[in-house]
Amino acid sequence: MTRRPSALLIGVGVAIVALLASGCALPAARVRPWERAALADEVMNPDGDPLGSALSEHVYFSRAAASGGRGVGGSGCGCN
Amino acid sequence: MVTGNPVPCRMLWAMAFTCALSAAVASGQVKLGASFPALSGKGLTGAVPDTRGRVAIIDFWASWCAPCKASFPVYCEIQRDFLKDGLVVIGVGVDELPSAYAAFVARLKPTFATVHDSRRLMVALVQVPTMPTSYVLDRAGNVRFVHAGFHGEETERELRREVGELLAEKEALR
What we know:
The structure holds two protein chains of two kinds.
Chain A: H1 7-25, H2 50-64
Chain B: H1 6-26, E1 55-61, H2 66-82, E2 87-93, H3 98-108, E3 113-116, H4 121-126, E4 133-137, E5 143-148, H5 153-168
Parallel strand pairs in B: 1-2, 2-3
Antiparallel strand pairs in B: 1-4, 4-5
Helix pairs in contact in B: 2-5
């Protein structure tokens, strides 16, 4: 015999899930547009040093024989 | 399909409704047609120009925002061209550091008024959607146009048209 959950149980469950989900909608959980000074800093750019990145990429594919393995489609066969 | 069992279906609808309600409550941005909050009494540093009975552009900017830098010369030109007709441009800087604010103003030398919202009370009240954001107010102080971001000539063209329209409207004091 299977018992259906009571309306109270459903209500409590919905309330808990909604409470957790509402955290995603509250602005307090986000970095506001006027608070992005640190994020806009040059050091936050993952490709802040293009020459260094190219050098690193060259070393990587030379040693691992995986040309384009970081950003271009293809396998590690080096044939693309 | 969840229609076979009414309990999960009811739960899903309730969750969706609650999430939508939460998102609606969280969004407190100044809307089109609403009265723009008064700049005075918000702890702004610097002289706040009188906007009563004038068309105003309130621009929120920051020194770390590249489009803000690009927008300053445009606002200078718009202010110059429409000043005699009754336009006032106010730049509200939201930098945390007063030194960053001062250095930006010293470097770009805007001909329009700038004030510093160091405590970020004003920007938090307005809830700007992005940086920069400018609000174009009519003579009664109502928000008539909002520009989220600055897109060069396109934004300049739109601002000039909007300011021209608002200046042509019948003058009404706040």
